[in-house]
Write a structure and sequence with these properties.
Blueprint lengths: L10 H7 L7 H49 L5 H27 L30 H21 L6 H24 L24 H19 L6 E4 L2 E4 L7 H20 L8 H37 L6 H16 L7 H25 L7 H19 L2 H7 L16 H31 L6 H6 L1 H6 L3 H6 L12 H36 L7 H21 L1
Antiparallel strand pairs: 1-2
Helix pairs in contact: 1-2, 2-3, 2-4, 2-7, 3-4, 3-5, 4-5, 4-6, 5-6, 5-13, 6-11, 6-13, 7-8, 7-9, 8-9, 8-10, 9-10, 9-11, 10-11, 11-13, 17-18
Length: 558
């Protein structure tokens, strides 16, 4: 039993009032202790639920950060389209994770609890449509993670993909691809999980808040999608046998800055919230460690990318330039890389991780240009490259004492702490290979099929004039005359593209009107011909003549 207390009444007084007078003194003492214990348990449960809801809210608010980053990185003519696609990512993720995604990921499993049985399962098979799920706050927290993984892909495909492709991939990713990664690494029955009774190499993969599970999954999906989709029109070309990349700068550096600060703020919920149960004393220690390391790694990544790019520009041009965009993306790289081990590393290690992540971002960004893979927001080097480094860094810098707070009795540690024991690092490498392989096997044919069906890439002319005009009914001539849209990305004539697009849309409207008119006439003819034989012959003859005319007209239109 437990007592219901008012705001002005203590737990002791409430339990005292609930005692039965018919009991002996010993029985009353036992009942009193049981009442206090139950009340404390209920309070702890409520605090844990509130903590998860609060952390999930911070993580979901990161969707606004991703939207602002994408908005600042695209050209103005694609702004509405990019914003809607970010919204569709969250909506598709919500539906996919509600229906089957959560069930495949967790399916009657409980986070952070080591199981006694050694049963390994490929996926969860319960809690579909959240049936029989008690911890719905935990679903919200996990959904926000799934939505983050899906949104990573949005920036890489910006300015050239169709609307349908976004909704399809975000649903597929959060309904099946991402949940299997979660189940394999985070649940007690996953074959790579460190919470399994017999974990891999006696340790298992440790990915505290998702450098591997969330960011590498999303980053690898973005790489595959960007490769299949192809570059934006005019992005890459050759001059005298040399590959030249033309920059398409975004329309607002201020929105990029705002987006990065929103993401940094939301990352505290991302990393600290991954303790799940804040009322556990050891988890409070881990959460505090996580937020400090998150801050330091982000700062180190920013400084590293900024200074390294300035040094490179000075070596190449003789003049150092300080790139705000590279500093912002370096900050995000530091956040991604520290996520995997934020709670189980020392502060000095988080700075080292952040410094290296800034350099990794610059290397990955230059590599993409050499491979002619077009990524409008550098999502691939930020999330994939830095995510892989974050997973590896756990195998290097994990502190034994912090690891034991998560896994009591486990002696795992980073390689720098146990030079003669590389098991944790080996587990991390195996985990990275699994995620890369799993995502590639599923998403490469998925995007290949979308491309084959013509559902992936937008029409070339629509891409040139801007997807806002093509998909959202923007007034072409008004926006162009007011200078709101810059269309000359391939040195073509503005007027020619605008006029051609306007003419095509007009022809499509006229064709659609003809088709609608023919359908109505053919429907009327079908209804007339189905009437009884007592109709007068002239009507039947007229109907036959109309049918011939309609058939000829239909052939002309269709």
């Amino acid at each position: 039993m437990s007592a219901t207390t008012s705001s002005s009444q203590s737990t002791f007084d409430a339990c005292l009032q609930s005692l039965s007078a018919n009991l002996t003194t010993d029985e009353q003492q036992t009942q009193m202790l049981r009442c206090i214990s139950n009340t404390i348990d209920e309070t702890k449960s409520g605090v844990d639920a509130f903590y998860l809801i609060y952390a999930a809210s911070l993580v979901f608010f990161m969707q606004a950060g991703f939207a602002m980053v994408c908005a600042g990185s695209v050209r103005l003519k694609n702004l509405q389209n990019t914003m809607l696609k970010n919204l569709l990512d969250a909506c598709g993720a919500a539906l996919g994770f509600y229906t089957v995604g959560y069930a495949f990921a967790w399916g009657s499993s409980y986070p952070g609890i080591k199981v006694d049985n050694d049963e390994l399962t490929f996926a969860g098979l319960s809690n579909f449509f959240l049936s029989d799920l008690d911890q719905k706050a935990f679903w919200l927290f996990q959904f926000s993670f799934a939505a983050t993984s899906a949104t990573i892909v949005a920036g890489a495909l910006a300015e050239r993909s169709q609307m349908l492709a976004y909704l399809l991939y975000s649903t597929a990713l959060t309904a099946f691809v991402y949940p299997i990664v979660v189940h394999s690494i985070w649940t007690p029955n996953g074959f790579l999980s460190s919470f399994n009774a017999n974990p891999l190499l006696g340790i298992g993969v440790i990915d505290y808040a998702g450098s591997l599970v969330v960011h590498v999954t999303g980053g690898q999906t973005a790489l595959i999608a960007a490769h299949v989709l192809g570059a934006r029109k005019g992005r890459f070309h050759e001059i005298d046998g040399r590959r030249i990349a033309k920059d398409f700068p975004g329309h607002s550096i201020a929105l990029k800055m705002l987006g990065v600060f929103i993401l940094w703020f939301g990352w505290y919920g991302f990393n600290a919230g991954s303790v799940y149960y804040i009322t556990v004393k050891s988890n409070a220690v881990l959460a505090q460690n996580a937020v400090v390391n998150t801050t330091l790694s982000a700062a180190a990544g920013c400084i590293s990318a900024l200074l390294a790019k300035a040094w490179l520009s000075e070596r190449q041009t003789g003049e150092a330039t300080f790139s705000l965009t590279d500093a912002l993306w370096g900050c995000l790289s530091g956040l991604v890389s520290v996520t995997g081990g934020c709670a189980i590393i020392d502060s000095w290690a988080s700075i080292v991780i952040g410094l290296i992540s800034g350099l990794i971002y610059l290397w990955g960004s230059n590599l993409l240009v050499k491979m002619q893979v077009d990524d409008a927001v550098d999502a691939i080097p930020i999330h994939l490259c830095s995510g892989v480094w974050g997973a590896l860094s756990v195998g290097l810098f994990a502190v034994p004492e912090y690891v034991q707070l998560i896994h009591p009795g486990v002696t795992a540690a980073g390689w720098f702490y146990k030079i003669n024991d590389g098991r944790l690092l080996a587990c991390q490498v195996i985990g990275i290979l699994f995620v890369l392989g799993w995502v590639t096997v599923l998403m490469l044919p998925f995007f290949g099929l979308l491309h084959y069906l013509g559902w992936l890439r937008a029409d070339s002319l629509d891409e040139i004039v801007g997807l806002d005009i093509s998909y959202h009914g923007a007034n072409v001539l008004t926006n162009y005359n007011q200078g709101n849209i810059n269309i000359a990305d391939d040195n073509g004539s503005h007027d020619q593209y605008v006029a051609e697009h306007h003419q095509r849309r007009q022809q499509q409207r006229e064709q659609n009107q003809k088709r609608s008119s023919l359908r109505r006439r053919m429907l009327f003819l079908d209804l007339s011909s189905s009437k009884s034989d007592h109709h007068i012959p002239t009507r039947q003859q007229e109907g036959g003549e109309n049918a011939i005319e309609m058939e000829e007209g239909a052939n002309a239109v269709f």
